[in-house]
Amino acid sequence: MAFSADELHVLRRSLAHALQSSTAPLTAAEVQDCLRLAQSVDEAVQEAGRLRAFLLADLARYRAALPGSLTGYLELLQDALAAGYEPVPDDLAALRALRANPVAAALLERSQVIAERSVRRRLSTAPAPRTRLLAIAGGAGTAGGPAGSGSAQGAVSGSGSGKEKERPREPEPDDRPARPIPTPGEVFPPRRKPAPPPAAGRAAG
Predict the structure, then answer these.
(1) Left, alpha or beta for 194 (phi > 0: left; psi -120 to 50: alpha)?
(2) Which residues of 152-186 are buried (b: 16+ CB within 10 A; e: fewer)?
(3) SS3 content of the chain, % helix, strand, coil (to 5)
């Protein structure tokens, strides 16, 4: 990114004002100059992003056309590395296949160094993995420990006593003598024969 002479003058005044001990406010003209400088910086950043996108697109296109596009690919890769590009695995694989070329061999060594540095940076900034919580031996929640077995036995005995209490009582045996079973004759006594009718003479007299 390059600044013009006027932009450098505005930037110098802004830095001096930020570093000085006094809190005197900027004039209206100085504020406008700072706003114009900020707008110019934003436009330059956006333009740099567009140029980087075009460069990476051309690099991918030349890489897909290898080995016929060897010269153009190596030139674009050099420009991309100078602009802060981190080579991807496809770049490393292409350079390994082209290591017979001295320029490709030099770029391969440079790209490997950049890739290793990038991996180390990502690993250093990655969050630490969570440690697994392990049960402490002899705790109340461990199975097989003294406390755990005791609680388990207590739970089993408690459940067993509860079941015994809930069991219905059996009827106690009756000490009174059992009555004999009645015979059919006692249950169904024989019917008596009907009395004979009175004689006719007796009825007439």
Answers:
(1) beta
(2) eeeeeeeeeeeeeeeeeeeeeeeeeeeeeeeeeee
(3) 60, 0, 40
Determine the Cα–Cα distance for residues 34 and 16; give it in Å rounded to an integer: 13
3-state secondary structure of 66: coil
This prediction's pTM: 0.49
Q: Which pLDDT score, from 0 to 100, does residue 122 have?
A: 85
Distances (CA, A) of 174 to 40, 136, 171: 112, 59, 9
| Residues contacting 53, CB < 8 A, separation 6+ | none
Q: Given its phi and psi angles, is residue 182 left (phi above 0), alpha (psi -120 to 50 degrees) or beta?
A: beta
Task: Write the pLDDT tens digit of every residue in 23-54.
Answer: 677 788 877 877 887 788 788 888 888 988 99
Q: How far apart are CA 138 and CA 145, in angstroms?
A: 5
Rounded Cα distance between 60 and 73, Å, is 9
Q: Is the dihedral of CA 66, 70, 74, 75 positive or negative?
A: negative
* 99-157 per-position pLDDT tens digit: 999 999 999 999 999 999 988 888 888 776 666 656 666 655 555 555 545 554 544 45
